[in-house]
Amino acid sequence: MPAVLSDAEVRALLGCVRNPIHRTCFALMYACGLRISEAATVEIGSVDSTALLLRIIGKGDKERRVPLPQPMLYNLRRIWLTHRNPRWLCPDRLRTGPVSKNALWRTFRLSVRAAGITRPVSPHALRHSYATRLLESGVDTSVVRILLGHANIATTSIYMHLTEPRSRAFLTS
Question: One of 23, 35, 133, 145 is an active-site residue; which one?
Fold first, then answer.
């Protein structure tokens, strides 16, 4: 089963990330359900601030658009002001390319430990957590499939086993 982090665990983990670019990248993964490679390579031109959408190029070079929460847009604007990279939202240290997935992995491992999370989790847990929160909020599985860029609904249905019922009435009806 995929590892899912609670909102409190995500907040604790993000609070332990010292590098602001890495923190923004992880926050973007959680806020938009992105894979690590997708978050690392988001380009400035992929942000539609008017429609609050983010254009993502996923596995197999498939394009999808995902909702971009207003607070995340604010964070992206704020981080961009610190580096002003003309292409990448999350540039590497030299600002010549996107942030390295290996650097993100190292930061994630250290932050998980610092946050006191003892079970094994990977950066992909942020994507799992996003999907689980959507389903717990009542978003239809087919919509979650589209947002995650899954080709098959069976892949998305794995998350159904991770959700908690919203109320006791749900269980008795």
Answer: 35
CB-based burial, 11-25: b 16+ in 10 Å, e otherwise: ebbbebbebebbbbb
From the candidates 22, 23, 30, 127, which is the catalytic residue? 127
Work out the mean pLDDT of the chain and round it to a whole number. 87
What angle in degrees, to the nearest 10, is found between the helix axes of 20-32 and 7-15?
Answer: 160
pLDDT, tens digit (0-9, with 9 covering 90-100), for 76-128: 999 999 999 999 999 999 999 999 999 999 999 999 999 999 999 999 999 88
| Residue type present at position 141 | T
Catalytic residue at 35? yes
Mean pLDDT of 149-155: 64
Using alpha carbons, list the distances in angstroms from residue 135 to 56, 129, 156.
Answer: 21, 10, 10
Distances (CA, A) of 11 to 15, 19, 31, 37, 108: 6, 15, 12, 21, 13
Q: Which of 30, 130, 145, 159 is catalytic?
A: 159
What is the full DSSP assignment across 128-148?
Answer: HHHHHHHHHTT--HHHHHHHH
> Global pTM?
0.85
* Residue 83 is a catalytic residue: no
Q: Are strands 53-57 and 47-48 parallel, antiparallel or unpaired?
A: antiparallel
